[in-house]
Amino acid sequence: MHNPDPHLIQMLKHSWPTAQAAGHFFALPGLSGGSVRVEQADRTLLARRAPAQPIPFVDRQREYRVLRKMRGAALGPAPLAWRAPWLLQTWLPGDTLTPTQFTAQRAAVLTLVRKLHQQPLTGYRLHLGPLLLQYWQLCKGRHWRWQRQLGRLLAQGEPPPLRLAPLHMDIHPGNLIATADGLRLIDWEYAADGDIALEVAALCAAADGDRAGWIGEYAQRANLSPTQLAQQVRRWQPWLRLLMASWYQLRAEQTQDALLQQLAQASWHDL
Predict the structure, then answer these.
(1) Looking at 144-238, which runs of residues are DSSP E strands?
(2) Are 233 and 200 in contact (CB under 8 A)?
(3) Rounded to an integer, what is the distance from CA 119 to the centroid of its chain?
(4) What is the CA radius of gyration of the chain?
(5) What's the order of all strands across the beta sheet hosting 95-96?
(6) What are the distances in angstroms from CA 201 to CA 67, 106, 213, 221, 229?
(7) Where are the beta strands (DSSP E) in the chain?
């Protein structure tokens, strides 16, 4: 990576004043973008930049604070420093899961998710209504069907939480790292407190199959009725589908990326 951000170099020098050099920088792929692997002589770090364009709810300072609250639970990377616009954290060595591995390792995935949901609340409450309105206001390609669906959900109101807990809100194969110490979660930019059934609904969408199996196994671990959890998951599904479509629409407009444009189109078609 040529010409790394001077703010990042200054942050590294401030964090490790005795280091011989700032390190080597490698830009990482990803739909959100802005992540850089930093290789120093004795450590590898991950630097996450604040988005160049606004993405609702994404705030690197809040992400840093959430990770600080979770750092004793061995759920993800350890936060090292935050100084606008950069969040610095440890690099988790390992490989992301494939969709096949994600399905095959359901027990391990749910063990990790359940551990997350047992942590103390972060103090940052997630409300999908205001979040969806922000996407609507930021996007240019609005459609009357989108407006109708958004209006219907807002009039209906969010389902009362079945159980409040810290949520990751972006669990999918690409955000799960198989490390030597087990599975770990990365990309915590959407983490906040919310209904566990919302997270389970997102897991079912990521798994793309055997929804009953994911719901039943989580319900058993959480000492919940599978029927009750399944009903709550169904209540959240239209909210989640609209949130995913809105995210793809905004990011497609901001980046003009062909893949994101295809995903946005497919999401609206499915909706």
Answers:
(1) 164-167, 176-179, 182-185, 192-195
(2) yes
(3) 17
(4) 19
(5) 95-96, 176-179, 182-185
(6) 23, 14, 12, 16, 10
(7) 24-27, 35-39, 44-49, 79-83, 86-90, 95-96, 164-167, 176-179, 182-185, 192-195
- In 3D space, the residue among 153, 163, 165 whose CA is nearest the CA of residue 229 turns out to be 163
> The whole model's pTM is what?
0.93
Q: What is the mean pLDDT of each run of 10 residues along the chain (271 residues)?
A: 79 78 80 80 92 93 97 96 95 95 97 98 97 97 90 97 98 96 96 98 92 97 97 98 96 93 89 76
Largest CA distance in the chain: 59
* Helix intervals (H) in 82-195: 99-104, 106-117, 128-138, 144-156
Strands 44-49 and 86-90: antiparallel
What is the rounded distance in angstroms from the CA atom of residue 103 to the CA atom of residue 21?
A: 42
> DSSP readout, 76-98?
SPPEEEEETTEEEEE---SEEPP
List the structure tokens of 5: 């951000």
Give yes or no for a contact between 98 and 190, defined as CB atoms under 8 angstroms apart: no
Tell which residue, 46, 32, 36, has the closest CA to residue 92: 46
Of the candidates 251, 238, 229, 190, the one whose C-alpha atom is nearest the C-alpha of residue 30 is 251
**What whole-number distance in Å separates Cα of residue 44 and Cα of residue 47?**
10
Take residue 100 and report the two structure tokens written for it.
């096949």
Q: Give the angle subtended at the CA of 141 by the CAs of 201 and 242, to the nearest 5°.
A: 10
Query: With contact defined as beta carbons under 8 Å apart, do 52 and 34 qualify?
Result: yes
How far is residue 264's CA from residue 247's CA, in Å, rounded to a whole number? 8
